Each structure stands twice: as C-alpha cells, then as structure tokens.
Amino acid sequence: MKTKDFYYELPQSMIAQTPLQQRDASRLMLLERNTGKITHRHFYELPTLLNPGDCLVINDSRVLPARIFGVKEDYAKPVEFLLLRQISQNLWEAICKPGKKAKTGDCFIFGDNVMSGTITDVTPEGNRHINFSFKNGTFFENLEKIGQMPLPPYITEKLADKERYQTVYSHELGSAAAPTAGLHFTPKLLEELTQKGVRIAKLTLHVGLGTFRPVKADEITDHKMHCEFYNLPQAAVEAINQTKAEGGRVISVGTTSCRTLESVFAKLGKIAADSGSTEIFIYPGFKFNVLDGLITNFHLPESTLIMLVAAFAGYKTTMDAYKTAVEEEYRFFSFGDSMMIV
C-alpha cells in the first residue's frame, strides 16, 4: 500500500490544543469492525460498553518533562535540549537546538543552577550526549523542577498543568510522549470498571519521539520503525491469559499497549512475561494474535498509528470512520476524542 492511501483532510481547527476540563467527558466513537457501524458515545459511558470478564490493557509509562533549556557563558540565548534516552546514570542522549551552539566539551547551566551538563559526544545523527551533575537530590527530582513537557509539534498552546499530559495511572518514568489513549481515564472510571468485573492489566512501553516521525517512503513497507522499550509483567500475563481462557475480550488501551502485546506474541508464540525492545510495524495485512478490541485516539494522516488502526479495523472501515469523525467535528490527536473498535 502507498503512504498516500492513509491521507485525509483535516481542518486545523479540529486539532485539540488543550485537554478538556473533565478527562472522561471526551466523545467516544464506537466502531464495530465487522459491520462498520458507528455509534457516538462519551468516554464516561465506557463501563456500559464492556462486559464482566473483559480485560483492559493499559500502559503505565510516565512522560519525562524532557524539554530543558541550558545557558552557557559565551552565548546569551538559552539552548533547548530534548532528552531522548538515558545512556547511564546521569548521561543522556538529547536533541538540541541550535545544535551548533552545543559542541563537545561545552558546559551548560540548567534552571537556577539546579543542574549543569557537559557535552561529551556528538552522534552521527547530530544528537548530543550530555553528562549532568547536581548538588542535591536525584536526576529525576531535579528534572521535575526544571523540565517542560515535550508536547507534540501540532500543539502550540502552553499546557497549564503538566499532569494533564500524564495518565492518572502513569508510574514508570521513561516516555518522550504520552500514551494518549489513556488520558481519558479518571480514578472514578477505573473504579467503576473494576466493580463491574473488568480486569485491568498494566504493562509498560516507553513512547519514543519516533512516534511523531512522518512516513516519508512512498511504499509503507519501505518505512523503518523506531525502537521502543517494553515490559510485560507476570501479573498482566495472568490477567490476559485468564481472560482468553474464559472467553472474555482483551482490549488494548492505545497503540502502545497493542504493539507490546503483539510484539511479545510474535517473539514467544504466546503471552508470557517479557521485556525488551520492539520495532514492530503493524499495517493492513497484519494478523493479530492477542487483541479483541482497541481504544485509541484519532491519529495524524499518513502516520504509522492510523496504519495500525486500519490493520485492526480494516482499511475502508477506518478511512470511512475518520471521514465521519471530521464531519461530526470530533477533536483530533493527543488531547482529542477517542474511538473504541470492537
């Protein structure tokens, strides 16, 4: 298939710039993949759409406030650093701009002397390795003080509350972007689901910035996926396997949870405790071995995420649903509305 096959027209005004005041007040498009039937609901109605014995698989990764600004003596303007991955305890790989102002050996001050960092290397891709030092606390405690959320480039408004770009169940630090399908949940909603008998299985996939990387290849099969770390713990494995054994549905909250489950099955031939890295690319023609349902937001045109949705729901069904979402003026992307595919 061609990348252009996944293009759709979207008015700029429909890209959600801020989260709704109430997380679960977002709209929820219910899409039946076998018939293409669409029903318009709200996310707070989710308990009525699930059955006792179903299992929701959620990603508990927590977003790093990975956007920091450093100053150095010979340059008046701050240099922006976007932390990509931890190499060792205080050594990180980062994108920086302007890059020409961050040479090997340069030292930067972050915050009001909260941390300092020295450039130790420049990668072939132009990223920087930066080694941080600080007097008090841990690296992550200091990062919380000075860091900003690395919001996607299509969000131009400032986020008033950093926690609104975190799920209420986020725990494991490491993502460069939020697993946004989970942003709609509230503690009350999770409690309602548990009381109904819906299992909640937690896994971790640290979302990389590659999730925003556009597909530039004409043929989707020529696109190379980014690599992301995942961990599927034993407790989640037991919940998923018990659900399958009892005839319940395993429903992934987000493409990240989906990619983790299908990666583990592809690797082991079953769902078992595992951790590692995945570069799985899911597009139409992919055979799903674990998923019975998917809760996800509305994704960018020509992105690997809409390709994954089309693989699960069917290409025509997906593109028709997106056309309907535009016509019905749903809110799109990270802070936008949701869809549930069953």
Which features characterize this protein?
nine-stranded mixed sheet, 28% strand, six-stranded antiparallel β-barrel, QueA-like, single chain, alpha/beta, 7 helices, Thrombin, subunit H, 2 domains, 342 residues
Please provide a brief summary of the model.
The chain has 342 residues and is an alpha/beta fold.
SSE blueprint:
Blueprint: E1 27-31, E2 38-42, H1 46-49, E3 55-59, E4 61-63, E5 67-72, E6 75-86, E7 91-97, E8 107-110, E9 115-122, E10 128-133, H2 139-146, E11 172-175, H3 187-196, E12 199-205, E13 228-232, H4 234-245, E14 250-253, H5 255-268, E15 274-278, E16 293-297, H6 304-313, H7 315-327, E17 338-341
Parallel strand pairs: 1-17, 3-12, 3-14, 4-11, 14-16
Antiparallel strand pairs: 1-2, 5-6, 5-8, 6-7, 7-10, 8-9, 9-10, 12-13, 13-15, 16-17
Helix pairs in contact: 6-7
Model description:
This protein has 342 residues and is of the alpha/beta class. The protein folds into 2 domains: 3-63 and 161-341, QueA-like, CATH 3.40.1780.10; 67-146, Beta Barrel (Thrombin, subunit H), CATH 2.40.10.240. Helix content is 21%, strand content 28%. The chain has 7 helices and 17 strands. The chain has helices at residues 46-49, 139-146, 187-196, 234-245, 255-268, 304-313, 315-327; strands at 27-31, 38-42, 55-59, 61-63, 67-72, 75-86, 91-97, 107-110, 115-122, 128-133, 172-175, 199-205, 228-232, 250-253, 274-278, 293-297, 338-341. A 9-stranded mixed beta sheet has the order 2-1-17-16-14-3-12-13-15. A 6-stranded antiparallel beta barrel has the order 5-6-7-10-9-8. Strand 8 (107-110) and strand 9 form a beta hairpin. The radius of gyration is 21 Å and the shape is globular. The two termini are 24 Å apart. The model has no long low-confidence stretch (mean pLDDT 95).
